[in-house]
Design goal:
single chain; alpha+beta; Immunoglobulin-like; seven-stranded antiparallel beta sheet; 3 helices; 7 strands; globular
Amino acid sequence: MRRLKLNVGHLPLGLVVLSLLLTGAGCASLTRSWIAPEVMVTSLKPQQIALTEQLLLVGLKIHNPNDRTLPIKAMTYRLSLEGDEIATGGGTLERQIPALGDASVEVSVVANALALAGKLPTLALQSRPWAYRISGTVTVAGVVPIPYRYSGEIDPRELVGARGL
């Protein structure tokens, strides 16, 4: 059996250096860090209300602050209203968000019935916007989890007008 040997000495030095640079650049683009996306709540709608489980459909606007497409494969969510966690969830979410672009999605989350039951009557009487916090992870390309956290306000009149809670 004959083994082939590559004698780098016979290749022009420029070709060897160019080859190493291209290989290094390709690896760097795979490991270049991601900036966490901005995830904003746009709506809350009851999806399924039962004695044992309450599901909410949460509208999200996801902004990609990166200079390249954000290939989301999965997300997790923890949603709080006025300081109390009211829902959690997660699962696959196949989305390609363009560089510096936005995407709107609706995701299903499991509501914490006790927290929700205690919070909604008080919130329903408020005319001011509700403070919310959403956090979790975005899994990019199936392997890289990126934590995100976003706080904002949502106007309850918009929710009612959009057939929300």
